[in-house]
Amino acid sequence: MSARLLIVEDEEALILLIRYNLEAEGYQVEAVERGDEAELRLAEETYDLVLLDWMLPGTSGIELCRRIRARRETASLPVIMLTARGEEAERVRGLATGADDYIVKPFSVPEFVARVKALLRRSRPEVAASVLIAGDLELDRDSHRVRRAGRDVHLGPLEFRLLEFLMQAPGRVHTREQLLNAVWGRDVYIDERTVDVHVGRLRKALNPGRLSDPIRTVRGAGYAFSETFGTG
Amino acid sequence: MSARLLIVEDEEALILLIRYNLEAEGYQVEAVERGDEAELRLAEETYDLVLLDWMLPGTSGIELCRRIRARRETASLPVIMLTARGEEAERVRGLATGADDYIVKPFSVPEFVARVKALLRRSRPEVAASVLIAGDLELDRDSHRVRRAGRDVHLGPLEFRLLEFLMQAPGRVHTREQLLNAVWGRDVYIDERTVDVHVGRLRKALNPGRLSDPIRTVRGAGYAFSETFGTG
DNA sequence: CAGTTCAATGACAGTTGTGCGACAGTCCGG
DNA sequence: CCGGACTGTCGCACAACTGTCATTGAACTG
To answer: How confident is the model at residue B17 (pLDDT cuts 50, 70, 90)?
Structure first.
């Protein structure tokens, strides 16, 4: 969840298709249409994966890929090449340039999503990992289970997503607004205090007995998953 | 990420759009509608970046930019010019005048935000950095934590912002009025002495035992973060 | 050195933010 | 159609935070 992807593609319809399907997977998707624009973005922001069209206005895909590999900061950034069928012969060259995978257009959407996921899981395990662990707390995305000190903890769907989101960025403080956007959804109209209530419920479920609280309240700012949880 | 930005723009709708998006990024945004007003603000306060409309009532954008460059205090202040499409040809003149970047209206919001971010990161790394470090003192914006000599220090929201602001410009002296504007907010009517009290509280929290004081009082002027802190 | 100005400190009251319990509306499965 | 699980909102209590004031102390001035 919440990996950031950059699409470099000049065909708008394709951007829409890709964006729609990847956002449905919970990824954060940004798109640019030109190679040189992409270079700017990559210099300014950090992404977890890049989808690169072979043929591009501006800097060509293959050239861009080479430059991505050349810059130290992006040398290990996963790149997936998109090639038209006729260019398939070039795939060897593409992989030689340093792409981690290539997908031939037109592609089947589920296959496409699977390839992206697989590559993310390989390169950024903490983003795609199915199990998040901190101290004696364990969250399994696949089975939708949470365990604390070996015992199963029952959470509602909302509390589950809330904990998942918090655990993804241990230590980082999120405002109530950010939490509403990330956990509830982008265009919901909900009182910010509601977040408090759910954090409270999450805590109650998570800390039976006298177990320590993994969630930190930052007065005036928001909530965070305690980065030192389980280490001290 | 608590950079202070000044927008100089006469189109109110545009101000709203910009303000909304930049505040969502965590920036502190102030806006004025006239060039001469902007000059006043710039003389009284310190900003990290200025967004300047090309066409303005009062002092024109290009003229204002020139004056910003002429004053020593603002000579290196990053400036982004906003130009309408028709004026694109003028961009050379704009850049020659000393703008660091220009954006053509209408612009895409994500691109706009990216440009602002990029320029800030380039020009004021300490403003964009998520962790500020000086000697044995450490302020982490993401996790909202402050450490002194390895130990966590608890600060109230105000004290946190105050320290953050001071650390952003080590050595620079800020008057109480400037501190009130920057840390408390622009339209608050609060006794200037209150700043003293909070600096006092901050010091107490920051200097347990016999640790040296990172905050310097400048009699008759204000306060500064000690520029030599940790280096001597 | 005495007088004046400005800053530090401790106390106090007022304000704000958070935790918590209660309750009502909604959704879904049986 | 009913019951249980889940969710959003309220109101209250309490603790944390903040602004002001009075007093003390330090630094500058002539």
So the answer is: very high
- pTM score: 0.82
Q: b vs e for A69-86, b when ≥16 Cβ sit within 10 Å of the residue's Cβ?
A: beeeebeebbbbbbbeee
Separation of alpha carbons A82 and A94, rounded Å: 10
Q: State what percent of residues in chain A have pLDDT above 90.
A: 44
Tally of domains within chain A: 2
Regarding whether A155 and A114 lie in a shared domain, the answer is no
Last residue of a domain, one of A99, A127, A155: A127
What is the C-alpha separation between B195 and B190, in angstroms, rounded?
A: 9
Q: Which two tokens stand for residue B93?
A: 């003149």
Last residue of a domain, one of A127, A149, A181: A127
Shortest CA to C1' contact from A193: nucleotide: D9
Domain of residue A142, CATH code = 1.10.10.10
A122 in the same domain as A170 = no
- Do A85 and A148 share a domain, yes or no? no
Whether A95 and chain B come into contact, CB under 8 Å, resolves to: no
Coil/strand/helix, residue A9: coil
What pLDDT sits at residue B90? 63
* Cβ neighbours, 10 Å, residue B193: 8
Q: Residue A91 — very low, low, confident or very high, per pLDDT cuts 50/70/90? A: low
From the Cβ of B210, is strand C under 7 Å away? Answer: no
| pLDDT at site B59 | 80
State how far residue A201 is from chain B, nearest Cα, in angstroms. 23
pLDDT digit string, tens, across residues B33-58: 999 999 999 999 999 999 999 888 87
Could you check: is the Cβ of residue B190 within 7 Å of any atom of nucleic acid strand C?
A: no
Phi/psi zone of residue B58: left (φ > 0), alpha (ψ -120 to 50 degrees), beta? left
Q: Are residues A140 and A123 in the same domain?
A: no
Residues A163 and A209 in one domain: yes
Give the residue numbers spanning the domain of A172: 129-225
Q: What's the Å distance between residue B210 CA and nucleotide D27 C1'?
A: 23
Q: Are residues B147 and B201 in the same domain?
A: yes
- Integer distance in angstroms from CA A205 to C1' C21? 16
The stretch B85-96 carries a mean pLDDT of 64
Query: Per residue in A111-136, pLDDT tens?
Result: 898 899 888 888 776 666 788 999 99
